[in-house]
Specification:
Layout lengths: L1 E2 L2 E2 H16 L12 H8 L7 H27 L7 H33 L4
Antiparallel strand pairs: 1-2
Amino acid sequence: MNAGGIDAQRISSMLAQLRAAAQKPEGFGAANAVSPVQKTVQSSPTSQVSFSDALKASLDQVNNMQVQAENVGKDFAMGNDNVSLSDVMISGQKANIAFQATVQVRNKLVTAYQDMMNMQI
């Protein structure tokens, strides 16, 4: 069955891929991918990870996701046959979710800072 130019089998396949990706505990990357924050923690199990290094690694990862989503979108717009619309939408949503999570973390940090500054000594 063809619904608006998209084959129902492709839709079922895409849904199966999304469900499989949702089951992965790592989140954004491939099954064996390790985030920069996890690399920092794993590389030195006895030493402590500085907050600034972990924050910078997380921000770099979000930035890389946004750049990748933009590049995939440009490739699709230029007519690259190797990039499908679903690839563009998925990479854009991943970048959006990562950015929204970053904004929420920032909001929590600002709130914690304000609470600490309002404490009486």
